């Protein structure tokens, strides 16, 4: 799966990380639902950290479509809501 973090670039994330990313994505969604800004920031940071740690950066000169687009770490609640799909930020 190719995941783009806005302002950072793309990461190739192995399928084995999919379940963990979906758990973290669900935590972001739960924080959005409860309007808990502190939990939202922590959950978003954890999701981004998992992509960075588990993924391999895609070279800047390689053009591939992203399967998921994640906001930058300091994104607001409204900015993240604008990126949401029916199944959250991460497909699946």
List keywords for this structure.
92 residues, alpha+beta, four-stranded mixed beta sheet, 3 helices, PspA-associated domain-containing protein, PspA-assoc_dom
Description:
The protein is of the alpha+beta class. The chain has one domain (2-83). It has helices at 18-34, 37-54, 77-83, and strands at residues 2-5, 9-12, 56-57, 68-70. Strands 3-2-1-4 form a four-stranded mixed β-sheet, with helices on one face. The longest helix has 18 residues, at 37-54. It is globular. The N and C termini lie close together (11 Å). The mean pLDDT is 92. Residues 1-92 form the PspA-associated domain. This is PspA-associated domain-containing protein. It holds the Pfam family PspAA.
Q: What is the overall shape?
A: globular
The number of helical segments is 3
The amount of helix comes to: 40-55%
**Mean pLDDT level:** 92
How is the largest sheet built, in terms of strand order?
Answer: 3-2-1-4
**Succession of helices and strands:** EEHHEEH
Oligomer: single chain
Q: Distance between termini?
A: 11 Å
Structural class of the secondary elements? alpha+beta
Low-pLDDT residue spans: none
Helix-strand blueprint:
Blueprint: E1 2-5, E2 9-12, H1 18-34, H2 37-54, E3 56-57, E4 68-70, H3 77-83
Parallel strand pairs: 1-4
Antiparallel strand pairs: 1-2, 2-3
Helix pairs in contact: 1-2
Protein name: PspA-associated domain-containing protein
InterPro entries: PspA-assoc_dom (IPR054437)
Domain PspA-associated: 1-92
């Amino acid at each position: 799966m190719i995941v783009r973090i806005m302002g950072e670039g793309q990461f190739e994330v192995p399928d084995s990380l999919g379940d963990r990313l979906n758990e973290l994505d669900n935590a972001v969604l739960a924080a959005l639902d409860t309007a808990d800004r502190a939990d939202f920031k922590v959950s978003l940071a954890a999701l981004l950290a998992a992509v960075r740690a588990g993924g391999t950066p895609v070279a800047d000169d390689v053009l591939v479509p992203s399967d998921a687009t994640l906001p930058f770490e300091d994104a607001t609640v409204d900015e993240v809501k604008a990126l949401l799909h029916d199944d959250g930020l991460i497909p699946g």
